[in-house]
């Protein structure tokens, strides 16, 4: 019986290629769609918004952190795909007592590439997955980062403000863009404040579209306290989704960097 090792170094055994898959991770749900697993994926979460056709028609088993065991059981999965950060440990462990659960742990572009290839192998889509990973690799190889790194902060939440530390996927994406994370000396998702942003002397402040949906009004709100900081809204999916959404990320980042350079910050 084939055995597969996930990104937490756990092993699961599957008698054959999975035919009833539940994905508990939005970016990996989109990846499964890109790998052509229309029939095999039977369950997703309420946050798996891509593709729209799956969001509207696939059975939902709750949220990423509120998985409902009875809905999972009704779908009789032969594979569940989860993530260390996005799902709740206790919920995933409970599911793992009943079903094969493959868990990803993605903090860098290299981690995402490994995850894509691994899921391609486990779902009998290895060739497609390798091709997709190579396309992503080629795209990032062509990305031209800023020649002079800008001191940058990236906000993911408001009330309180929250940012990203060095051990996050968003931090790695900022690094690929040539943006210096001013909170890179902290871990995970620390709370911050206007005073901390002022003290960090950030030249560029990026307001993400998710998980908190920052809008134009928030630029004005923060600009009053940070008059010398360039503040922009950004598409959080390109910074934090680590599946096939990465195919479009380099072009999005390049466009963003060109926008930043138009009014180059001194």
Provide a descriptive summary of the structure in words.
There is one protein chain. This protein has two domains: 3-139, Nitrogenase molybdenum iron protein domain (Rossmann fold); 145-262, 3-Layer(aba) Sandwich (Rossmann fold), CATH 3.40.50.1980. 36% of the residues are buried. A hairpin with a 2-residue loop joins β6 (62-63) and β7 (66-67). With 266 residues, it is of the alpha/beta class. The chain contains eleven helices and 15 strands. The protein has helices at 26-34, 52-57, 69-75, 89-96, 109-122, 126-142, 169-176, 194-199, 216-223, 236-240, 249-262, and strands spanning 3-5, 11-13, 21-23, 41-44, 59-60, 62-63, 66-67, 79-83, 101-104, 150-155, 161-162, 179-181, 191-192, 204-208, 230-234. The mean pLDDT is 96. Strands 5-4-3-8-9 form a five-stranded parallel β-sheet, with helices on both faces. A four-stranded parallel β-sheet has the order 12-10-14-15, with helices on both faces. Helix content is 38%, strand content 19%.
Question: How would you sum up this structure in a few lines?
Answer:
This protein has 266 residues and is an alpha/beta fold. It has 11 helices and 15 strands. It has 2 domains: 3-139, 3-Layer(aba) Sandwich (Rossmann fold), CATH 3.40.50.1980; 145-262, 3-Layer(aba) Sandwich (Rossmann fold), CATH 3.40.50.
Proportion of beta-strand residues:
15-25%
Helix and strand succession?
Answer: EEEHEHEEEHEHEHHEEHEEHEHEHH
What radius of gyration results from the CA coordinates?
19 Å
What is the count of helical runs? 11
CATH superfamily of the largest domain: Nitrogenase molybdenum iron protein domain
Question: Which structural class best describes the helix and strand composition?
Answer: alpha/beta
Distance between the termini: 60 Å
- Going by CATH, the architecture of the largest domain would be 3-Layer(aba) Sandwich
Tell me how many strands there are: 15
CATH names the topology of the largest domain as Rossmann fold
Point out poorly predicted stretches. Answer: none
How many domains? Answer: 2
Q: Mean pLDDT, rounded to whole units?
A: 96
Biggest beta sheet attributes = 5 strands, parallel
Spatially, the strands of the biggest sheet line up as: 5-4-3-8-9
Anisotropy-based shape: globular
Helix content: 25-40%
């Amino acid at each position: 019986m084939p055995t597969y090792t996930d990104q937490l170094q756990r092993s699961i055994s599957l008698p054959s290629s999975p035919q009833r898959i539940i994905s508990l991770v939005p970016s990996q749900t989109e990846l499964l769609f890109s790998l052509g697993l229309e029939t095999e994926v039977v369950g997703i979460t309420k946050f798996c918004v891509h593709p729209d056709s799956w969001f509207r028609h696939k059975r939902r088993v709750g949220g990423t952190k509120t998985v409902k065991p009875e809905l999972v059981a009704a779908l009789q999965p032969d594979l569940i795909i989860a993530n260390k950060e996005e799902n709740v440990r206790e919920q995933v462990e409970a599911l793992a007592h009943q079903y094969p659960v493959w868990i990803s742990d993605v903090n860098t572009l290299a981690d995402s590439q490994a995850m894509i290839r691994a899921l391609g192998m486990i779902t009998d889509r290895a060739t497609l997955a390798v091709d997709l990973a190579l396309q992503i690799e080629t795209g990032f190889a062509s990305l031209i980062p800023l020649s002079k790194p800008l001191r940058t902060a990236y906000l993911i939440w408001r009330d309180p403000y929250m940012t990203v530390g060095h051990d996050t996927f968003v931090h790695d994406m900022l690094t690929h863009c040539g943006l210096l994370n001013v909170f890179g000396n902290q871990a995970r998702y620390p709370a911050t404040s206007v005073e901390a942003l002022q003290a960090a002397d950030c030249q560029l402040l990026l307001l993400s579209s998710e998980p908190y949906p920052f809008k134009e009004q928030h630029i004005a709100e923060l600009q009053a306290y940070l008059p010398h900081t360039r503040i922009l809204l950004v598409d959080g999916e390109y910074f934090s989704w680590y599946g096939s959404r990465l195919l479009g990320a380099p072009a999005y980042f390049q466009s963003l960097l060109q926008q930043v350079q138009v009014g180059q910050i001194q």
